[in-house]
Specification:
mainly beta; 17-stranded antiparallel β-sheet; 2% helix; globular
Length: 323
């Protein structure tokens, strides 16, 4: 919910991955209920996490003109998310998604627009998602529509829409695969239509290949009765609004976090998470809210840095999952 994550592509997949949490045993097809029924769920109902990124240098341009080289002395971010699911009818699912981001950035020198030597930014988004389950080409199909609003601690800024259509191509105990399209209703979107592909394959040695494009590529394995190790790459983003001279600017940054993640079931439906590795920023831009992501006034190119992330999630709806 913005960068690729910012435009809410993952919300096209969340109803599919959480569908077992709010369903009765006979409410949806068996192949849908078969998805992601492991001890540590991939989607979380309530999640809080903290990220710290080590210092890194960067170059930037303002209106196409090079600015002096700069350095991020400190980058910290706190995230809080809630995904709550409600079912209305046998083939319908209604959910709400709430997100909050607190970002603290400290640079050696000020950059434009209005990202001073040290600044704190608040970002939030709220969305409603409706999913419908049907049959297409003798396979289970999931259609969804989402509407969301976002803003800062000062104003609500944008209203966005998202529509998706996904087809479950395969759902067996060993292999699960879906294919679909996501359409973003947002004039500032970098790419208005995106393919969405998920693939999970369980190997005989216990490793699991987990792909959700364009979001992540991971390989994971249970290393204890309550712990899971994952290796690979995930897409992350930073987004917030800034205000200067009666203008509203939006800052978007897309990063690839490559490294290791350890998840541990703490009991009572609580899950702790630790992540670390190399962070590579692939797109950093600031643009006037009235314009699109491609009509930026400032862009930055950052050198890779290390990241550390700790989080805890609570999944109360796990009690309703089919055994």
């Amino acid at each position: 919910m913005k960068t690729l994550r910012r435009v809410l592509v993952p919300l096209a997949i969340l109803p599919l991955k959480n569908i077992t949490y709010a369903q009765k045993k006979d409410s949806i097809p068996l192949k849908v209920r078969a998805f992601f029924a492991d001890k540590i769920p991939q989607a979380r109902n309530f999640n809080v996490e903290y990220t710290f990124v080590t210092p890194s240098s960067f170059s930037s341009q303002l209106h196409g003109q090079d600015l002096p080289d700069n350095k991020v002395k400190s980058f910290q971010q706190m995230k809080a998310d809630a995904n709550i699911y409600f079912i209305k009818k046998r083939n319908w699912l209604l959910s709400t998604t709430l997100n909050y981001r607190y970002t603290s950035i400290s640079n050696e020198n000020p950059v434009v627009p209005r990202i001073e030597s040290e600044e704190n930014f608040h970002y939030h988004s709220e969305g409603m998602n409706l999913s419908y389950f049907s049959r297409l080409f003798k396979k289970t199909a999931i259609y969804s529509a989402s509407i969301s609003a976002d803003g800062s601690d000062q104003h609500f800024e944008r209203i966005r829409g998202l529509v998706t259509a996904s087809l479950i191509l395969k759902a067996t105990p060993k292999t699960k695969m879906t294919l679909g399209l996501a359409g973003i209703i947002d004039p500032s979107a970098q790419i208005p239509i995106l393919p969405v592909f998920t693939y999970e394959n369980r190997f005989n040695n216990g490793w699991v290949l987990d792909i959700l494009l364009p979001k992540k590529v991971l390989i994971r394995k249970n290393i204890s009765s309550n712990g899971r190790l994952s290796l690979g790459t995930e897409m992350d983003n930073t987004s917030f609004y800034t205000y200067r001279n009666n203008n509203t600017y939006e800052f978007r940054q897309v990063a690839l976090n490559s490294g290791a993640m350890y998840e541990h079931n703490l009991g009572g439906n609580f899950i702790g998470t630790f992540k670390t590795g190399l962070r590579a920023n692939i797109n950093s831009r600031a643009f006037n809210k009235k314009d699109s992501f491609n009509d930026y006034i400032w862009k930055g190119t950052y050198k890779p840095s290390l990241y550390f992330n700790v989080g805890i999630s609570y999944n109360p709806f796990e009690r309703k999952r089919t055994k």
